[in-house]
Amino acid sequence: MIRTLAWAIGALLLAGIVHIVTVIGLPRFAVADPWQEIAAHGVEESFVRLPRAGPGETPLPGLDPALTHSVCRFSLDRGPVRLRADAAEVYWSLSLYDRRGLWVWGVDNRAAEQKPIDILVATDVQVAQLRETLPDELDDVVIVDWPGREGFAIYKILVPTRSQEAEVEAVLATARCAVAPIR
Amino acid sequence: MRLVVELFASLVIALAVGLGSAWYMVDGPRIGVGVGAWTAMPSIAADSADPYSRARVARSGEIAMGAGEGLVFIAEQDDEGRSLDGGCDYALTGEAPTARLWTLTVSDLAGRLPRAASGRTFLTSREILRDIDGRFEIAVSAGARPGNWLPAPAEGALRLVLRLYDTPLALSPGADMVMPHIERRGCR
Q: What are phi and psi of B180, to 5 degrees?
């Protein structure tokens, strides 16, 4: 009896370890995380408009069908990445996610006060370099200190009515994402 | 011999329980603050996300809403705890929490949106009709309804998703939040 109990306790302890190792290890070995899902939609360092989520079609899991989305996957290996876009007059939001699909930074139309979006994403080292020789053209740019080297940005805009869809899509199409090397 | 059998049995049980429980916790959002029939999705902010949410995002590829962006609530049961079913008609009544914009969708448990004749798959706070007190009633059913109507799948389990954009709400257990009631109005 005691012997069985001892084995049972041992099994449960081991089960706990297996549980923890699995949960912690999963992000490292995942093959369908957002980063890889986005790769299927286009090239790096360029905004790609995603199809609207609709019946039988969800380009990426979790997207709101009421909004239209554009996504840019970036890597900071070749320098900081600059994100620019016109601000829509309706609700919009620009969010930055890290390599694991976790949210890091974001801005929406209330925070931006209808100013055009102009963001520079840079690593610690790149930020330090930029501080030394801040070019004039970057005066009004919001600099985001990036943890890691990779990530992706999503620009999303509400489509209030079907008649405004073309107008909203035109604003979405102004989104630019490009490597901005430090000179 | 007995030792080998015991060791083998323990290992099998440990693996089954450990992997099974991990799969269960990661398969869907299992931890979240509940408000009535609704459950708020846990934060996926890089600096504060819990290990289960990290694993869930990695596994599903889901692009979840950011912490500063808003909150997402899901409901898979009505106010009385019965699972939402496409064979029934539901009414969402009352008020939604303060937010600059909210959107409501209904899908199956895999997140697939219904194929409605009208092509409509969502409702937003901008377009719904309210009474003088600001309260609303939204019909969630497969058949067309007058007034606020969100077309639902005709069969199978349903999931309601309420996304609040730019809300001043902070999530904490026991927080005073007004969420719409989910009432079952009849089944076919």
A: -65, 145
Which residues lie across from B162 on neighbouring strands? B73, B104
Find tokens 């007995």 and name the residue. B2
The domain total for chain B is 1
Which residues in A lie closer than 8 A to residue B18 (C-beta atoms)? 14-19, 22
Residues B76-100 pLDDT 10s = 999 999 999 999 999 999 999 889 9
* pLDDT tens-place string over residues A43-94: 788 899 988 888 877 778 888 999 999 999 999 999 999 999 999 999 999 9
Whole-model pTM?
0.89
Q: Answer yes or no: is B11 within a domain.
A: no
The minimal CB distance from B49 to the residues A22, A30, A102 is found for: A102
ipTM value for the complex: 0.87
Backbone CA torsion sign across B61, B67, B72, B76 = positive
What CATH number does the domain containing B100 carry? 2.60.120.600
Cβ neighbours of A60 in B, within 8 Å: 61-63
For residue B6, the chain A residues in CB contact (below 8 A) are 3, 7
Q: Are A80 and A125 in contact (CB under 8 A)?
A: no
- On the question of pLDDT at B174 being above 60, the answer is no
pLDDT above 70 coverage of chain B, percent? 97
- Please name the member of A7, A64, A147 whose beta carbon is closest to the beta carbon of B6: A7
Q: Is residue B134 in a domain? A: yes
B106: containing domain: 33-48+67-187
- Is B67 in Cβ contact with A103 (below 8 Å)? yes
Contact A88, A118 (CB under 8 A): no
B61 with A16: Cβ contact below 8 A: no
Distances, alpha carbon B132 to alpha carbons B98, B102, B129, B135, in Å? 17, 19, 10, 7
B149: pLDDT strictly greater than 90: yes
